Amino acid sequence: MYDKDNDCFKLFVRNLDFGSLCSKPQADRVSNIAWAKDGQALLYVVTDDNKRPFRLYCSMLGSNGEDVLLLEEPRENIYLSIRHTKDFRFLTLNTFSTTSSKVFLINSADPLSGMTLIWECEAQAHCIIEHHQGYLYLFTDAAKQGQPVDHHYLLRSPSACSHSPRKWESVFVDDQELIIEDVDFCDSYLVLIVREGRKYRLCSVSLPLSTAKASLPLKELNPQYLPIPDHVSQILPGPNYDYYSSIMRFMITSPLMPDAIVDYNISNGKWNIIQQQNLLHERTRVLYGSASSINVSNDLSSCNAGEDHSWNDLSEYYACEYYDVSSPDGVLVPLTIIYSHHRKKSSKSPGLLHGHGAYGEILDKRWRSELKSLLDRGWVIAFADVRGGGGGGRKWHHDGRRTKKLNSVRDYVSCAKFLVEEEIVQEGKLAGWGYSAGGLLVASAINSCPDLFRAAVLQVPFLDPSSTLVNPILPLTPADYEEFGYPGDAQDFQAMRQYSPYDNIQKDTLYPAVLITSSFNTRFGVWEAAKWVARVREYSVYDPRRPVLLNLTTDIVEESRYLQCKESAMETAFLIKMMDS
């Protein structure tokens, strides 16, 4: 249960037979949980005052005894996470620190019997363990034989292995053209989300795999592919809790298609669109014009990847194009643009450039209905996949963090200049948009080239890292050291001062119009936005046609769809007004 006042989760267990809450377990500040012992035991992790997961407890349901503390981690740079394998045979405890990542295995049938270290690697590595018919499967991006890798790979080891350290073998032969983005398991199939260049694909392989030690290329395992449109920007697995079901749920996102929740029956190759965001089938003709007939149930044997209309996409009305933009150091930055067929892009089109570039997260390029108002007015919507974000592997992320954070800003500025120089967007009519760390990116780009932008929207932006990160008692601050730098390190602090939006505001310069939204909430430092706005107003050349506005709320907008609609409408109106003024 979410405690809004304290921005944390509380743990309660309800007896479904009687509808009443159990007397135990009950806990505050819970970060995650995992069931064990056929539902008779519950393991949970709690956080400290700085929201760091640091204690692991085990509670026996129906017992009057106290919850057992299995592990407490006093070191402030170590974080805990607990989960169970999908077949409920094991629990895995992940510990993350600035120096290493470890995975411990716990027997689900006897969670108090102790834990065994089964994997250890360098810091910042992603490690997920699953179990299938006597084998442990490890999905990770850890270094191989001391050599860093850019993408994830899949290993396996017999669950009964007695070797120390445990021996792991590769499941697939490395293929630089086919990148594994994610995996999911059920009793009879292994499902992989893969990427070839910019194209995402979803395929399944029958289980169990051969017990032969030699790894094989994926194509030799006869994968079954789900046909999806070429413009898909991300595939996300659903909860898929039923391990023994052959139907698995995924969310398909695209710049040209409202998010589609898809149930994929792997055993017979059929798939169904269960839900599609903001798309009522009977209103499609009213909302988007004369859409083609809709068919939401398909069979792989009668459908090919080119039949995008079966996915209810909007390519009849909007176009999507891809570019590679050269950054100052020669690195090619992926740039995606969408525009209306009926209001074709031209040298007079206004533009909105999105960016994020932090935490290794893939830039959200999904279709958003609030952008339709801009697209139908002839706007070009662009997405810059700058360094520091995801999609390009670990190196892409590392080349845009800490002392290399300026690479993110230079990439974003290069994409903005490309849009103007190639006459995709009219000069003087480009706006920027960034959320949280993306707000830092856009604000830094404005400091670098204020005349390049006409307007900007910054949602709960991170604008003063050199001051905020000095204060370790603020929420999430220690976790941000790895991303933005540690101010106690001279090199990190010097780099931080170079990209910090607050520290680099230009004097006596005409700034673009800016709308900043923030919240009086413990999760966000509202003072950062207030300080930045005050300094921009003080330093920059005043122009009533280019206001610098600060909008504050007392609620977390992400938790209320009504507030989201209200804020989106305000942002859209602001952008249109600034371009027309």
TrEMBL record:
Gene3D superfamilies: alpha/beta hydrolase, Prolyl oligopeptidase, N-terminal domain
GO MF annotations, alphabetized: serine-type endopeptidase activity
Keywords: Hydrolase, Protease, Serine protease
One of the GO BP terms on file: proteolysis
Keyword field contains Protease: yes
Top-level taxon in the UniProt lineage: Eukaryota
EC number: 3.4.21.-
Keyword Acetylation: no
Domain Peptidase S9 prolyl oligopeptidase catalytic: 369-537
Domain (Peptidase S9A N-terminal) ranges: 30-276
SUPFAM superfamilies (alphabetical): alpha/beta-Hydrolases, Peptidase/esterase 'gauge' domain
Protein task: Serine peptidase whose precise substrate specificity remains unclear. Does not cleave peptides after a arginine or lysine residue. Regulates trans-Golgi network morphology and sorting by regulating the membrane binding of the AP-1 complex. May play a role in the regulation of synaptic vesicle exocytosis.
Similarity annotation: Belongs to the peptidase S9A family.
Protein name: Prolyl endopeptidase
Phylogenetic placement of the source organism: Eukaryota, Viridiplantae, Streptophyta, Embryophyta, Tracheophyta
